[in-house]
Structures are given as structure tokens and as C-alpha cells.
Design goal:
294 residues; alpha+beta; 9 strands
Length: 294
């Protein structure tokens, strides 16, 4: 007889290993969906963005070793062998030598770099990167500011100069005069002011082109009077009025007399002669730059 406790049963059904494989695939799919693919997509997106922007980007690890250089940075710093990570690492070393604060987290400076045989002005930004409080690396961003700098200089020139004659306009003329007095108050100086009498008649009788020519000659006369004195200041302070601020010891009336003679030749006729009036005064204190129309 058999005891019930000795009974055993054998299951002869086949084992379906696909269930195990599906489970492993599900885990891997979840991993790819939740971590690997998004991170790969982010890395690819960041690379594409960094490669199409008009700034040079170089990333460094915590040991100041170059780990990524975008296309524009390679173009800026290319040489016969191409720009490598070693070049990037050396670039950071050279850049850090210019820092006033060697431990700064953020630094900005401008420098000229030769690109395609031409000097270009670049603004370089260095920034350290932290994960929480832990330093994990840094990057350099290089932006070409040559054209924007030139545009800024042009705009500043336009704001400070008379469009027709190229000399200082009224506001900038008095700003420069007051600054000169502040920097050197002890030197005696003259303020000379000119006025072309009845200048509107010149425009009416001889034309605007002739009137503009006279104004340009007036500006040239003042320039000639200051040609040997770099601290003299001159400008156009209204339509037909010019002013000159110069040291008292270098004032030479002959220069102005000869200049006026040349001006008169432009429009001299039997019925009209150009008349230019000059006033001169020794200065004492700062100038009040307010409009003549009050």
C-alpha cells in the first residue's frame, strides 16, 4: 500500500519562456523610455543647438580639460591640424592667466582674435558650473562683437558730431569744454564765437549748396587754427554759429583773418559781401549749455 504522504505529481506541460523575455523587454523598454532615450535626445538636441548658434562654446570638466567644442569655436580657433580638445584645454589655461580674480565664478573680457586673416573683436565669457554646491566644470563662450562695436562707435559719433561739417555739435562741444576746465582749471583760455551775419540771405540768393560750402569752410578754418594744439575744442553750436575754446597763449588772430578772407571769396559779388563777426572772451568758470532760444 502507498501512504498518502508519499504521493507526488509531475506537471508535464511545456514552459513558456516568452513570458520571461517579455518581462525583460518590458523592463528595458521602461528604462529606455524613462531614462536612456530622453537623455540621448537631450544630448543630441543640445549638440545641435550649440553647433548652430553664432557663439563659440567650449565645455570643460572639473579638471579644466576640454570635453566639447562646438562648430563655431572650431572655426574661430582652427589651425592647420584642426582644433582638438587639447587645444581647448590650452585655451582655457591661457584665458585664466588674464583673470584679475583667479577664483572668479564668472568673468567677461574683450580680445582680438585673428580669423581668416583679419583681426576680429570677441567678447569672451567664462563661467563655472555647479551641481548644487559641487563644482562640476565650466565653459567659455566667445561672441564676435566687431560689427556691433563698430555700429556703437558710429552711433556715438553721430550723436556727438554735426552731420554737415563733422565737428562737435552743441551739446558735445560744451561737455568737452566743461570737462577740460575740470581737468585743467588753472590754464587761461579764450572762448571764441563766430556768427555769419544774415546767413539766411546766403541760402536764398546763392542756394543751399553754397551755404553748406561756407559752413564747411568755417569748420575747416577752426580746424586749421587748432591743428597744432590737441587740447583746443571747436564745434558748431547753431545753424550759422561756431565756437572755439583754446588756450590764451596760442591764440593767433591772423589765422581767423585769413580764413574770413577765404570765406568772402565764395560769395563775393558787386552787391553782396559776406560778413563774419567774431566775439572773444576770457573764460571764468563752467559753461551753461542752454539753448539760445529762451
Amino acid at each position: 500500500t502507498r501512504r498518502s504522504s508519499d504521493l507526488c505529481y509531475t506537471l508535464c506541460a511545456p514552459v513558456d519562456f516568452s513570458i520571461i523575455l517579455y518581462g525583460i523587454l518590458a523592463v528595458y523598454t521602461s528604462y529606455c523610455s524613462a531614462y536612456k532615450v530622453p537623455n540621448d535626445m537631450i544630448s543630441l538636441a543640445l549638440k545641435n543647438v550649440n553647433d548652430i548658434i553664432d557663439d563659440g562654446i567650449i565645455y570643460f570638466n572639473e579638471n579644466d580639460e576640454s570635453v566639447y567644442v562646438n562648430a563655431y569655436a572650431r572655426k574661430i580657433f582652427k589651425d592647420g591640424m584642426g582644433f582638438t580638445h587639447k587645444n581647448g584645454t590650452e585655451r582655457l589655461k591661457e584665458t585664466k592667466k588674464t583673470f584679475a580674480d583667479k577664483n572668479a565664478d564668472f568673468t567677461v573680457f574683450d580680445e582680438y582674435i585673428m580669423v581668416d586673416g583679419k583681426d576680429r573683436l570677441f567678447r569672451t565669457e567664462y563661467k563655472k558650473l555647479y551641481y548644487g554646491t559641487q563644482f562640476v566644470g565650466s565653459f567659455i563662450k566667445i561672441r564676435d562683437i566687431t560689427d556691433s562695436k563698430a555700429q556703437l562707435i558710429k552711433q556715438k559719433y553721430i550723436a556727438n558730431h554735426d552731420e554737415l561739417t563733422g565737428v562737435f555739435n552743441r551739446n558735445h562741444f560744451f561737455e568737452k569744454c566743461n570737462q577740460l576746465i575740470k581737468d585743467d582749471p588753472e590754464t587761461p583760455r579764450y572762448m571764441l564765437a563766430s556768427n555769419i551775419q544774415d546767413f539766411k540771405l546766403v541760402n536764398e540768393f546763392f542756394g543751399r549748396k553754397t551755404g553748406d560750402e561756407i559752413l564747411k569752410l568755417m569748420a575747416k578754418m577752426l580746424e586749421n587754427a587748432c591743428i597744432e594744439h590737441s587740447d583746443d575744442i571747436y564745434g558748431r553750436i547753431s545753424e550759422d554759429k561756431f565756437a572755439l575754446f583754446m588756450r590764451k597763449d596760442v591764440f593767433n588772430p591772423d589765422v581767423f583773418e585769413n580764413g574770413i578772407i577765404s570765406l568772402r571769396k565764395v560769395v563775393k559779388t558787386s552787391s553782396y559781401s559776406l560778413r563774419v563777426i567774431f566775439g572773444i572772451a576770457e573764460t571764468n568758470g563752467y559753461f551753461d549749455n542752454r539753448s539760445e532760444e529762451r
